[in-house]
Amino acid sequence: MDAQRTVKVSKYLSKHLRHQPERLGIALDAHGWVPIDELLRAMARNNVPLTRAELDHVVATNDKQRFAVEGGRIRASQGHTVPVDLGLPPSDPPAYLYHGTVGHALDAIRREGLRPMNRTHVHLSADRETATRVGARRGRPVVLSVDAAAMHRAGHTFCVSANGVWLTAAVPPAFLRFRG
């Protein structure tokens, strides 16, 4: 499987396992899982044939480890716009987490903080480098620091996905640092 097809399949899987399972003709369970055999049959019906070996390759080589495989099932690790309960336990966050964005979003973020928008959680990174890459997907990146320790002390809940993305319901403006 060449690199171009690997990326194309990864994006296809992300679209359907995170946002539009019904368009592929699959149903995610309450925790976002779908049986792999069912997924592969649905993909074939939709003229996107994929073997189990190819799926395993896409999962194993995805640079962001977006997918989890367990017990003959697959799911997206986070980023859902469809309602799922990932079943992730609350975790004590590091002192600071980071969020990559772009400059034109800063006025709204200063007023409203970070909101999940159409997703189920706000996504945060454990390091500035990852947040920079995330922000760069939409333009010139701006990295915000989140005082996660203070948020946690104030009663906000954090969890961490299988691929190391920190998730929380929202980040109020008081916990954001726009410099440094």
Index terms:
Arc Repressor Mutant, subunit A; ADP-ribosylation fold; alpha+beta; three-stranded antiparallel β-sheet; 19% strand; 180 residues; elongated
Structure notes:
It is a single chain. With 180 residues, this protein is of the alpha+beta class. It has two domains: 3-76, Arc Repressor Mutant, subunit A (Orthogonal Bundle), CATH 1.10.10; 96-177, ADP-ribosylation fold, CATH 3.20.170. It contains seven helices and nine strands, in the order H-H-E-H-H-E-E-E-H-E-H-E-H-E-E-E. The strands form three sheets. Strands 1-3-2 form a three-stranded antiparallel sheet. The protein has a three-stranded antiparallel sheet with strand order 4-6-9. The protein has a three-stranded antiparallel sheet with strand order 5-8-7, with no helix packed on it. A hairpin with a 2-residue loop joins strand 2 and strand 3. Helix 1 (3-19) crosses helix 4. The longest helix has 17 residues, at 3-19. The termini are far apart. The model has no long low-confidence stretch (mean pLDDT 94).
